[in-house]
Amino acid sequence: MVNQQKNIGINLWSIKEHLTTIEEADESLRRLAEAGCSAVELCLISEMPDAQTMKRLCDRYGLAVCGLHDMTVLENPVASLQAAKTVGSGFVSFPYPQGRDLSDPDQVSTLVEELNEAGRVLYENGVTLTYHNHQVEFARADGALVLDRLVTETDPRTVQFQLDLYWVQLGGGNPVQWCKNLEGRLPQLHVKDYAIGADGQPCSCAVGKGNLSWAELVDHFDGKQLIIEQELYTSDPFDELAEGIRFLSSFGS
């Protein structure tokens, strides 16, 4: 087994097609551990085994649970808190503002209120809420960048951020600058590389094979949980994820 890198994890959305049964999940987590992965971020979706089962399998292979992605955390933070406690995670991430029109400033205000309330519930019970961005937060509502509003209007004690480098780049932002902007509120980074595919469209790729400014980004790795996410593969997904782990490990992560 490759030595596990203590702050490099994998978001399991990356291999969701290989987690549809308990048997598949067992084999997939074994392969991640053998690749040097030390932690995984669970996704609370019906297509995967339940959180308790995933925790049991993670324990079997020495994998920590570094976070949860839960679409329901804003509407039911108590249930998310219970799930986090079940798997031993100190973080729950709100992964996507589905069904919200972020060009509407009133809907952004509502999102801020919901983040603050859910963040308070988790914070008071020893768990941290993080907000996971996509490109949609780089829209403007009444001239204000949505991500700026989320940063300035949420409570810095109770709402942290999980910056996804790929989506920052796709949204027209500067990933390095946003790491600086969020310093002190950025316990986790979603490490998803940015490439241009054969069809000329943006796509993810094995970490280190794309166009992100790694020489500058590495300065912002210290003290952060790095979570690899990849959605497009040209070969075996586990081999490409292992390649990403080796790349990040080369920086002394």
UniProtKB/TrEMBL annotation:
Residue intervals of the Xylose isomerase-like TIM barrel domain: 29-249
One Pfam family here: AP_endonuc_2
Protein's name according to its UniProt entry: Xylose isomerase-like TIM barrel domain-containing protein
Organism placement in taxonomy: Bacteria, Pseudomonadati, Kiritimatiellota, Kiritimatiellia, Kiritimatiellales
